Amino acid sequence: MTEEIVRSEPAPLPETLPPVRHWPALDLPGTDFDPVLTELMREGPVTRVRLPNGEGWAWLVTRYDDVRAVANDPRFSREAVIGRQVTRLAPHFIPDPGAVGFLDPPHHTRLRRSVAAAFTARGVGRVREKARGMLDELIDELLQDGPPADLTATVLGPFPIAVICELMGVPAGDRHTMHTWTQLILSSAHGKEVSEQAKREMSTYFADLIGLREGSTAEDVTSLLGAAVGRGEVALEEAVGLAVLLQIGGEAVTNNTGQMFHLLLSRPELAERLRAEPGIRPRAIDELLRYLPHRNAVGLSRIAQEDVRVGEVRIRAGDAVYVSYLAANRDPDVFPDPETIDLSRTPNPHVAFGFGPHYCPGGMLARLESELLVDALLDRVPGMRPAVPPDEVPFRKGALIRGPESLPVTW
């Protein structure tokens, strides 16, 4: 297998284009893998799709090596998406124009560098003990109140919110407001205007907070951004766009861990093995991250800046392209028996946090939170089990990031 798109002069390719497949926004329960994506993967490593919003069609790349290659190739531009109504899942663009999600290097590199210190091993380690303490308090309350309980409302929701707000430098009193805005931004169920209004309000909040911290020497994200703005390295609107994306991304852990614990509660043999063999937990979490279909459809698109050959397909300059990290994580050439959860799988080069310049900056933080949650809930609530049949757990409707709306448990 090759991990690089061929850059030499491509051999003549057939000009017959694959059909355009409509890809609806399916509200899927549990860890069900999108049946439309399954069909697209079978049709070929590079297909064409039309999503519920935007205009036209886009290429979809699903093979692991091709996904990594496209995600890391500067000939595919995020900035070029701005001003185009590319077919997409959400009725609105989540990042604003100029935000890091729609930047290419070197501007993308410059902006990410301004907050890199917060997301290194040292930066994440700075909040580790605080996070563990907050989690212990939440589980103390859970045990004190007794069963049954909604694990999402009591632990899986409040914990990531508290952690990302701590890392961002958002005061504890503003956590609920941040959560409300994030839920509206990450949902297509309320319509475009409601989501856009929530994003504007969050942006205004961060503009004020970053402005107050221009001379700060603290290590939280808004202080790092304030200092970078003060030094003239980053424009205020750029800093605000990055803060909004990081805050939203931090709350995605709620849905991801909700899926993870729904799976562990539905498959008690997996939970029992993790209780019996705590040493395999970090590796097991990587396998669950690989396996879980954490989002609906695909994320942000790219635009080809020149003709590029991907496998046996010529993508022409100006074409929109999506990569599917979910499909890449099920590529049998890389992950033998990909539909099986193998808690001892090694190596496990999954791309659950993306790849290339737009690799999720909060990946290390999300993994830390997952490890803390697995340790605490498996060890402190050993008798935890579902309070309702797994197929009765309600999953979020119209959500871009999949997860249970509530997770009823007892013990």
Keywords:
411 residues, alpha+beta, 3-stranded antiparallel β-sheet, 14 helices
| Structural class assignment | alpha+beta
Strand order of the largest sheet: 1-2-3-9-6-4
- The low-pLDDT segments are none
Total E-strand runs: 11
Beta-strand percent range: 5-15%
H/E element string? Answer: EHEEHEHHEHHHHHHHHEEEEHHEE
Helix content: 40-55%
Mean pLDDT: 92
For the sheet with most strands, the description reads:
6 strands, mixed
Distance between the termini: 48 Å
Radius of gyration: 21 Å
How does the overall form come out from the CA principal axes?
A: globular
Oligomer: single chain
Please tally the helical runs, counting DSSP H or I stretches of 4 or more residues: 14
Report on the architecture of this protein:
The protein has helices at 35-43, 64-71, 107-113, 121-145, 151-156, 158-168, 175-185, 192-212, 221-230, 236-266, 268-276, 281-291, 325-328, 363-380; strands at residues 20-22, 46-50, 58-61, 76-77, 149-150, 302-304, 308-310, 313-315, 320-323, 385-386, 408-410. With 411 residues, it is an alpha+beta fold. It is built from 14 helices and 11 strands. The N and C termini lie far apart (48 Å). α6 (158-168) packs antiparallel against α10 (236-266), α8 crosses α9 (221-230) and α8 (192-212) packs across α10. A hairpin with a 7-residue loop joins β2 and β3. The model has no long low-confidence stretch (mean pLDDT 92). Helix content is 44%, strand content 8%. It has a 6-stranded mixed sheet, sandwiched between helices. Strands 5-11-10 form a 3-stranded antiparallel sheet. Strands 7-8 form a two-stranded antiparallel ribbon.
